[in-house]
Structure formats: C-alpha cells, structure tokens
Amino acid sequence: MGTRIKLLFVLICIHALLSSGQNQDIVILQALKDSWQNTPPSWIGSDPCGDKWDGITCTDSRVTSITLASINLSGELSGDIGQLSELQTLDLSYNKGLTGSLTPDIGNLKKLSNLILVGCSFNGPLPDSLGSLPQLTYLSLNSNGFTGPIPPSIGNLTKLYWFDIADNRLSGSIPVSDGPTPGLDMLVNTKHFHFGKNQLSGPIPSQLFSSKMTLKHVLFEDNQLTGTIPVTLGLVQTLEVLRLDRNLLTGNVPSTINNLTLINQLFLSNNKLDGPLPNLTGMAILNYLDMSNNSFTPSQIPPWFTSLQSLTTLMMQNTRLQGEVPADLFSIPQLETVILKNNRLNGTLDLGASYSNHLQLIDMSSNLISAFTQRSTYSANLILIGNLICMELEATASYCHNSTESNSSYSTPPNNCFASTCSQYQVSSPNCKCSYPYTGNLTFRAPSFSDLGNSTIYTSLQNSMLTSFESNQLPVDSISLSNPTKNADDYLEIILNVFPSGDERFNRSGITRIAFVLSNQTYKPPHPFGPYFFLANNYDFFSDAPKGKHKSISIGLIIGVSAGGCVLVLLLVVAGIYAFHQKGRAERATIKNTPFASWDPDKGSGDRPQLKGARSFTFEELKACTNNFATAANIGSGGYGMVYRGNLPNGQLVAIKRAQQGSTQGGLEFKTEIELLSRVHHKNLVSLVGFCFDAGEQMLVYEYVVNGTLKDSLSGRTGIKLDWMRRLKITLGAARGLHYLHELADPPIIHRDVKSTNILLDERLNAKVADFGLSKPLGEAGQTHVTTQVKGTMGYMDPEYYMTQQLTEKSDVYSFGIVMLELITARSPIEKGKYIVRQVKEAMDKRKDLYNLREVLDPILALSTEQLQGLERFLDVALRCVEETGNRRPKMSEVVKEIENIMELAGINPDVESTSTSESYEGKTKGNEHPYLNDFSYSGGLLPSELEAK
To answer: How does this protein sit in the membrane (predicted)?
Structure first.
C-alpha cells in the first residue's frame, strides 16, 4: 500500500507542475492579447488550447506554435513572449502594424526553431540574445526596419539553416569569430546568407568562408562593402547563387571563383572591380552572368564565353570590352538576353546562321560597330544606336532608334471558362469564380532567365505553387500570377492572387496557414526562379464573424483556473485508485484492440507482424537520426505527411515518411501495409528498411536514393545527362521492378501510380520504383483485378481502369508506356492541354528515319551524335503499352524481354550496371527535393483525352 501512496503522490506532483505550466501559458497569451490590436475573434474564453484560438497550436496543453501572419495585427511584441517555454514556432509576418524593437527576452525560448517576422515594422537593434536559441533553424527578419550591427552571437546557432536579414537598415561589418567571441564563420550548416539591401560596410572577411561551409546562397547585394572579393570564397563549392553587386568592391576577381561549378546565378555588377576578366570556364550550369559597370582591363570578348552553354542572360555593359563580337556567341542554345552596351566593340556584327531561337534582346548601343551582317531573319530586339553604322547610311534602320518595347506582360489565363463580372473588390479567379483573393508580391532575388513574357515558366510556377498548397491541405481553389517586372535591383516581382475554395472569402485560419507556407519557405519554387520572399497585402474580407468582446484576463479568471487545478488534483487521486483496480482489464483491452500492444520485437511475443528484413524503430531512434526532425532534415511533404532524411547509427542514409495527424491509419491497417512492403525485395525497387509505431506516430523508413527522380533528370534539374544508352538501362530497370511486383511478389502487387517522379535513380543511375502508397495486392489465387476507387496521377492513368474501376496489372503497363514516351521526349504527359500519346501518334511516320519524330524527341537525343539504335522498336513497345484496352497490351515480362533485345541489338549488355553519375555527364546533382511523395494525386475528373477535347 505504501508504494501505491508514493506513486499517487508523484502523480499529484507531476500534475501540479503541468498545471502550473499550462496556467502560465494562458496568462502569457492573455497578456499578449492585451498588447495587440486586431487579434482574431476566436480569441475568447479562458483556455487558448481548449477553445482553439486561431493561430495557436498546443501540445499537451502547452503552447508550441504561434502563427498569426497577415491578419492586420498591430502593437508591440512584449517581453512576455519569452515565458512560453515550449514555443517552437513564432510567425508574425506581414503585419505592418507590429512595431517596436525585438525584445531580448526572445532568447529565453530554448525550444524555438522558427522565428519568422517578415514584412513587419520592427525596428531597433537585433538583440544579442538571438544567439541563445540552440534549436533555431529558420531566422527570417527581412523587410523590417532593424538597425545596428549583426550580433556575433548568431554564430552560436549550429542548427541554423535559413538566415535572412535582407531589406533592413543594418550597418557595421560582417562579424567573424575571434578567440572566445563567436562569428558567422561558425555557421557551417547554414545554407542561406540573405543580407542584401542593408548598409553593411567594411571588407568581406576572408575568414567568413571555408571548405567546411555548405552555403547555397550568398546574397550581399546593395550594401556598402569594400575591399576585395576574398579568395576563400572559392572554397565554398556548394554555392548556387552569388550576389555581390551594388557594393564598393575593388581589385581583381580571384581566380578561385571558377571552382564554383554549381553556380547558377553570378552578379558582380556595379562595383569598382579591375584587373582582367575572370575566367569562368567550367561553370557548366551558369544561367545568369552580370559583371556590368566595372573597370576591368580592356580586352576582347574572351573565348570562354561560348563555353557557358547554359547561359540565358549575359550582362557586360561598361566593362571595357573591345574588338569584334564572335558570331558563335549568339549560338548558345538557351540565350535570351545579351547586353554589351557602352564598350569599345567594333567591326561587323554577325549573328551567325544558327543563333539561339530564344533570343529576345541584343543591346550593343554606344559601341563602334560599323556594319551588320544578316544571314537570316532575326526576331530579337536589336539595338545599335550610338554605333558607327547608325551615323549615316543606316540611320533609318529599326536598330538605330531607341526601342519603345517594354517588358513583356503576363497574366494567368482562365481555365477554359469565361471570366465572371464581379462586384467591387471581388476578382474573377482562373476558374471564373468571383471571390476575395489573398494578394501580395512574390519577389525573386536571383531569377535565371530574362524573358519576362515566357508563359511556360509562369505556368510551371503556378502549378508547383498550387500543388504545394494542395499537399499542405490549404483551402485554395486556384492562384493567378500577373504583371512580372524587373526592379532596379534585378529582382523579379510578380503579383500573386490566391483564391479561396468552398467560399468567396478566407477565414483567418486559412490566411495564416497560407502565409506560413510562403513565409517559412515551405513552398520551393521550380528552376529558374531561385530564392524568393513574399510580402502580403492586408486582407480585409475575413469570413469568420466575431464571437465575443475582447476581454482581458481578470483576477477571477486566475482564481477560477487555480480552483479548477485543485479539483483536477482531487479527481486525479480518485482516478489513480480506480486505475489500479482496473489495470488487468485495461491491459487485456489494449492487447485486443492494438495489434502492436503485446509485440516485443526482441522476443517475438504477441502479435508480431510477419516481417521479412524490415525492423522496428522507436520514436526516439528516428528523432535522433533526424536531429529531432529538424527543418534542415526535411526533404519534402505530401498528403501523407513530411519526409525527412536520416542517418542511422550504422551510417546508412534513410528517407523517413512521417504521417501527419489525420492521415494515420488504424494499427491493423498499418501492420498489414508494412507486412506487404517488407515482402518486396528487388534491386529495382526502393526497399523498406523499417517502420515506427510508437508514441502515437506512424512512420515508414525507406532506403535513401541519392540522384532523385527520373523526372528531375529529364527536366535538366539535376544536371545529369541521360544519353540513349542510359535511358535504355533506366527503362529496363524500372520494367524489371514492375515485373517483379506483378509476377514474382507474394502476393502479386499492382503499383497503381507508375510515373517518372516515382522512379528514382541511385548513384549509378540504376532505376528503382518507389512510393507504394496506392499499391493494391492481388490476394487470391487466380484473381485478375481489384475493384477499387479510381486513384492515380493525371496523364498516366489507364482509361480502362478509369471507366470500369477495375484495377489490373495492365493498368501499370499503360502508365509505364507513358513513362517510356516521356523518356524519349522529355515532355510531361500533358502539356498545355495536349496529351503525349496523341502528339507522338500525330507526328509519327513509320516510312521515315526515326519515325519522323526528331521534332518530338528530347533535344538531347535529337541533337546527339550517337546513333539511336532501336529507338523505333522502343517506340513500338511504348505504343503497345498505351493501347486503349488491357488485353491488347503486353505483360511487363514481355516488355522486359523487348527492352533486353533492343539493348543487345544496340551492342549493350543489359546486365551490366551503368557508370556512376560522376562519370561523363554535365553538372552535378543538387539534391533539392526528395521524391518519396505523390506530387499530384488524382481521384476523379476528366481523362487526358477528354481534357484535350475540352
């Protein structure tokens, strides 16, 4: 009996401590409420957690997240915030009414991982206590009015991933460590230094950079930095974007800069740099180069310019260039803009016979060019005003006058409907619905293109953003983009309208969730947009009505809360005594209802799942290998939840799919799923390493596949060059994986979501089929189909399955045929409403070489010097796979045999592995996102053929 009394005493003490923390959080939130205006109408009642205050997230009745972006808050952030000891996320972005300094008490939030105050009106110095936040991964303070120096203590933030203090009035030098004093050189795990548009001065310390750093973005533009570019910058070989423009930098550009072979955008313009032009040979994926308005040594256009075959924009005005312009400069395949004005270029300007068909602007004004040779009709805007050629005879030519053309315009068109006539303040959405959109400016700090009228790239931006909103289950019907413009900082600004679903207005919860996806950089834009920030406009059309008057905390409330706590303590005593009497019954009920309850993985007791090679992980084990599920470890998200990269104690890299609340299955269903996945073992399938069913969590642990998706490689995002031989090997590997599922797995499995984003490439470019989230087993002997709800991905879906709801192995075959067409065209299954099958069939002529498909082929294949042996047979197999009815399609075993025969006829051994990706390909993988997710799931709607007909 004494033991029971002690246990009850311990429980009472624990409850008293918990109640104390809960009560403290309540008081603090009430204090914050009293210091702010325009708090949400739902902020009534005495319990922010139980009464579900908008923007407040609690765990075990403790406040862990405050996300109140874009709701017109005003006032100051009081020091009370520092007492929310369990707070992990604080996002108050886009509230221009929030003013005052950032309280030093912020440093008391030892569990804070996200501090996001974008686009407010905070001012004053940054507190040194920011360096006392050991868990901080995201620090976004941009677009405020902060002044003073960067606190050196920030160098203590070893987990910091995102560091954005741009667009403030910060001054002083960039701090580096000195003895016991920390500095920013200690941030070796940080990926983003966004310091642009401040008043930082002094030299860039050479100590700031080292080979230990993993920086992707160094954005120091528009400051007052002096001295030379440090040689050590070349040690940070992970860099993708470098902006040092609009400073006071002097001296030579260090030769080590050409070590930065992953650079996409390089801005060195508007400084006082001198010496020879830097040699940038080796920057194979450089898209945007601007070295304008510097005092380099006079020189001719260097031959290495033409080696930059990924260039879209070349800006070299006022850089003391001289001599003739080489014609092959304009043949760079993706070149859009060439600005070489205010130099000493002379002779004849020749665009060549095969200049880039993407060229939009060639500005050679204010040079000494005396003639222009035109071998073919050009469509680019050519400007030669201020050259010798325009002095007399040629003065009437169009290129001898100031261009009146402005930036190309763009606006998202309606989705096959007629725009509605809406009332005041309402806007017609792309789906032609009148509503009140959430609006703001998307600003991209380093876009890698200059053609602002290219609708294709904006469509990709729109689609990726909408997909991100959908995957985060946000109440968004559609989005529109409009009015893209370049500002004086060479930032790209686009107006964004986000339209609500299900209603004509957003409520506050919807706005704060959408704002957080943008402020927290949860949404990742596609190439070529680069780093961005969002500044929202006030939203004045909330749908949620006030629920009561603004009430401050009272003595009565505190007494009531305390009295309630005492009552709870008494109830706990009674409940504890009753619990001892009911212990046996509860244990039996738990064992009965929870399949894992009596399972001891070490002893094999109870209802242990029948696993083959997969192990059980505890929550603490997976928490440790992902650094507490740190933001830096996050590699994607989807409808199932978040995906994290983890490193097991044995060194194995894994991808961990963590189910979010609301998407978890029952224990029995989860047990059944992992039993199914654990039976799947094949070198061309992503293998299940293990699972976690612990602490209320459901997680699947897969092997980590380093080179991302086939889709990424086909789109050029990874930089991996896929020649014909590699494409055949990838096709064969994926086909063998599906053949295993269909005919060798026990029971046979239908994947149901075969697509290029679910085919991963390992370090040797071997294909591995992934993501079995929609898979269905054929459980009974002789069973030929499964009748099930239609799910899959638009463009890849079997039309017969759609019509009958009968899922068969031939449904996977159809999807695989689409992937084969994707492999030779590098086109998405549906582009601009056109279906890839119909495009190929309409262009095909079997009487001609390569079936007359050179115009449809991926340019990498069409322009390749290698012989595409077997391409016609490959196409025949693909078209057999996409026959309208399943009985006319081959089995996967037949597809495997056909691909093997094609490879053997081409002189390729089908059983020899590919070379590693470090051999004979251009560029390197970037590892931006990882693909253990469905990027666009589909459950109903129009078939691709019906979509095109519409």
So the answer is: Single-pass type I membrane protein
**The last residue of a domain, from among 149, 169, 203:** 203
What strands, in cross-sheet order, belong to the sheet with 476-486? Answer: 476-486, 492-500, 438-444, 532-536
In-domain check, residue 291: no
| Residue 748 and residue 666 share a domain | no
Residues 663 and 741 in one domain: no
Q: What is the CATH number of the domain that holds 755?
A: 1.10.510.10
One of 489, 753, 771, 798 is an active-site residue; which one?
753
What Cα–Cα distance (Å) separates residue 313 from each residue in 330, 333, 447, 495?
11, 11, 10, 23
Q: What is the CATH number of the domain that holds 139?
A: 3.80.10.10
Peptide bond into 859 cis (omega under 30): no
The DSSP call for residue 743 is: I
Total number of domains constituting the chain = 4
In a domain, 304, yes or no: no
Q: Taking CA 228 as the corner, what is the angle to CA 222 and CA 233, rounded to the nearest 5 degrees?
A: 85
Give bridge partners of residue 834 from the DSSP assignment: 831
Contacts of 788 (CB under 8 A, 6+ apart): 776, 805, 807
- Return the minimum-mean-pLDDT range out of 400-404, 427-431, 945-949: 945-949
d(CA 364, CA 778): 67
Quick one: how far is CA 869 from the chain centroid?
37
Structural domain ending residue among the three candidates 203, 227, 251: 203
In a domain, 271, yes or no: no
State whether 194 and 150 are in the same domain: yes
User: Is-contact 640 660, C-beta < 8 A?
Assistant: yes
Place of tokens 């096959």: 416
Residues 830 and 890 grouped into a single domain = yes
Reported as a single tens digit per residue, the pLDDT across 316-326 is: 999 999 999 99
- The distance between the two most distant Cα atoms of the chain, rounded to a whole number of Å, is 112
CA distance 154 to 840: 56
Q: 3-state class of 199 per DSSP? A: strand
Can you give the pLDDT at residue 660?
A: 75
> Within a 13 Å sphere around the CA of 219, how many CA atoms are in the beta-carbon half?
30
Strand order from edge to edge, sheet including 344-350: 299-300, 321-323, 344-350, 368-373
Least confident piece of the model among 144-158, 446-460, 630-644: 630-644
Q: Mean pLDDT lowest for which of 487-501, 534-548, 573-587, 863-877?
A: 573-587
Q: Residue 919 has what pLDDT?
A: 43
- 812 labelled catalytic: no
pLDDT above 60 (res 587): no
What CA–CA distance (Å, rounded) separates 533 from 144? 13
Confidence of residue 193 (pLDDT cuts 50, 70, 90): very high
The reply to whether 332 falls in a domain is: no
Query: At a CB cut-off of 8 Å and minimum separation 6, what does 738 contact?
Result: 751, 754, 769, 812, 816, 892
The enclosing domain of 671 has a CATH number of: 3.30.200.20
State how far the Cα of 453 lies from the Cα of 464, in Å rounded to an integer.
19
Per the confidence metrics, is the pTM higher than 0.90? no
- Clarify whether residues 732 and 871 are in a common domain: yes
CB 380 within 8 A of CB 450: no
Segment 451-464 mean pLDDT: 87
| Weakest mean pLDDT among 598-612, 617-631, 649-663, 739-753 | 598-612
d(CA 125, CA 169): 10
**For residue 524, what is the domain's CATH number?**
3.30.70
Segment 94-103, tens digit of pLDDT: 999 999 999 9
Report the alpha-carbon distance of residue 206 to residue 738 in Å, rounded: 53
Reading the block at residue 627, the tokens are 């650094």
Task: List the domain range (segments joined by +) for residue 525.
Answer: 427-536
- Is residue 926 a contact partner of residue 773, using CB atoms and an 8 Å limit? no
Mean pLDDT of all residues in the chain? 82
Residues 112 and 136 in one domain: yes
Same domain, 752 and 892: yes
Q: Are residues 523 and 599 in the same domain?
A: no
